[in-house]
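Summary for the lay section of the report: proteins are chains of building blocks that fold into shapes. Here we show the chain for TonB-dependent receptor and then a coded description of the shape we predicted for it.
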Amino acid sequence: MYKKYILFALLSAASTPIFAQRANVQGIVRNQVSKEPFSNVRLVFEKNQKSVVTDSKGNFSLPKLNSGEETILITGGNIQEIKITVQIPASGLLKMDDIYVLPSTDNDNMVQLSMAADDLLDDDNESFDQNIAAKIILSNDVYVNKIGYQLSQFRFRLRGYNNRYEQKYINGVHFNDQLRGVFNYASIGAINDLTRNGDQDNAMDASTFTFGSIGGSENINMRASAFAKGAKATATYTNRNYYSRGMLSYSTGLMDNGWAFTGLIGGRYADKGNIEGTFYKNFSYALSIEKQFQQGKHSLSLVTFGSPVERGQQSGSFQEAYDLLDNNLYNPNWGYQDGKIRNSRIVTAYDPTAILSHIWKIDPNTKLTTGISLHYGKYASTALNWYNGPDPRPDYYRNLPSYFTDSITNQSYTNLWQSAKVSQVDWDNLYLVNKLENKINDGAAIYMLEKRHSDLLESSFNTTLNKTINEHAKLTLGIGAKGSQSQQYKTVADLLGAEYVLDIDKFSERDFGQNTGQSQNDLLNPNFKARKDDIFGYRYNINIKSANAWLQNEYTYSNIDFFYATQLSYTSFQRVGYMKNGRFPTNSYGKGQEHHFFDYAFKGGMTYKFNGRHLLNAKISYQTKAPLANDAYISPRVSDFTFEDLKSAKIFSTDISYVFSLPKLNGRLSVFQTNFTDLISRQSYYNDAARTFINHGLKDMNQVNRGIELGLTYKVDNNWSVDLAATKAEYYYSNNPMGAQNSENGLINNEREMVYLNNYYVGGMPQTAGTLGVRYFVNYWFFGANLNYAGDMYLSKAPLRQLASNYSTINPYDPELDNAYHILTDQEKFKNSTTVDLSIGKILYLKNRNSMNFNLAVNNVLNNKNIRTGGFENARLDITAANKFASKYYYMQGINCFMNVSYRF
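The coded shape description reads as follows.
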């Protein structure tokens, strides 16, 4: 009897491996139109909680899948997301039929990244299960994908964060500059076709390439092997800052000899932009070369790109000017010279970049990614300057009718403005004034055009080790270092017919006299007569160095995932002055004080998986962050002075999210709060009462950002889908910081006074926003419509209006004083705005596997009193039919046409 039980047990044990076997799945993803392979497409096997990304030939392979019915989410930055259902066998190999997907029809005005993670691109990383469904679902974020693009016209910011809290990497190398802390999107302008692949982490998620940031992190993959073989030509028409854009790219794909090449040339152009007085000229290029050795164990990549641009700018103005001209797109920067339009504010920028990166797959579970970069950003902007003459800007407040109290002069100026005779720069008069001055005196300029330069030479190094320890644990280590030299100076752009400009400070001369040392911008070269292209006014460098090291552990189980990470960093900066300023002779020339900061950071998160479709995710982070050099100096053009007792800011952030992925409905609901402590900021403005240029610094500012986010996408059927993304938030100051005023003419020196900001809202962006979209696709025709909303938009508070002394004279019993108090201290709120976006297009099938994608988009702005060239603006459709349709409250926002022709060799 016992022998039977023993035999049965042995047979059962022997049979266990058979029942434990799991199936392997292989396949290829193709373009439904051209039938060519589609690279960098992610397939998420939701029930098995595994993911794989197609290679440059469209192939994918995934081992050890459990049997049964499986739903596969197919997504990526270049395709229209779909879901399919397959039956996984109990064992063996399932070779799937070719999967056909359609190219994305989304407008590509901004950089769009696929959600592929670099650590999942390894075809040979098969030793352990890729139990990462939670991470993939979290990164494939409906809310982030929809709301950022749709609401960009309102200057929407994700969770209200400044863009310095968003990290950008290219091929694993950090590219936020160290002076302002932001990524220069202009450096990749018109090379969109090479910036779509990459890795994205939201908020403080676990990352494969960085410690992370509260605003999210992106790593653009520009390695040549990431692009499928073929050529693509793109032509774009729009009526915004530029009206035409073109790109031509070609990639060899990864060839059998291990080489891959990808190149692109492009450009954007408008001789006359949609806003009067503007223009746009841009040429772009990119070249990516990659060589893989030892069957892909080593990969060496070199990428270089640049996008030089020249453009005429628009500026904001007073509401009075908009009302006088009945034009919310009024631009005061331009005027006629000899009958031709000339803009006084012209930007030239060029940021040539080179990146050398290496990937070493040490073993199937270990990868080391190392990269270095060098780029030299050159940026310059022109502006009018004047000496012993009236302000030449047409919208200067003394040139507006409201400045004049008598009704006759007021009406006279109103008539002049409405006839547009005084609303633009009078170039001919500026030349005439300088010409008369040349006859009377020795040729010194009263009016001239200066060029303000801000160049940045920067080198970066990053190395990251990704290690899969076992099927449950991963380890990631990273080291980074960066060195920057910011070069700040200005030159003479145009003397407007004069012989030279005297290099003295006009405000100091008024207060101290021309022959005193205080009026000299450079005591080493007094009374310098600056001519065309000469440096004058100010010249200084800020040298910045930083280094960091970070560690991250991730643990993944069937029902729960969690991670934690920590980082240590060091930052230093120092100003080097090349002019001895007369107002600050002992604190402007030579090397200044070097400032050092040691910072730390911690983050952690946990995801509970109710099943493969419902997740609960929570994250928490705390970090100290060194002040940016651009904020730390009080008056960097003339002195080395910084805020007293400089210290790092403290940032505490947490969020909780419910995430779900159903066959027809995907979405996320989140609540978040971030507390900022010990922030600093500097605002610079001309104080007409003090008659000088003021730098007003705020120290030890506290701020709270909190809110709710909702993102949903519902696939009605194979043709119809509906998207919703919305947020309700509050971004406000939570204390009254100490302010310090300093004037560049030396009269006002560190005048300290509390600034009342407590409970005022952070301005410049909507705090309530949402977009509801409908998409339809049939027979390669596609149609989309979005209703967008932005509300709770506030004007930023000027610290001069919030000084504590303004509150000391309050008399609620004096109606006049009480009314003045409210005018001074109340925060202006913009009207809520609504836009409607429509798009229609067709993907055409041509011979020889060519394809053409045509997309026409129309955006209609409603309630346009918030749409200004200096505020929440976008362009108006400038054609007769649209102008007839437009009324005072209804303007066309813009029209975009996209036509793409692709040919695969």
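Put simply, here is one thing we learned. Residues 1-20, 107-139, 861-905 have pLDDT under 50 and may be disordered.
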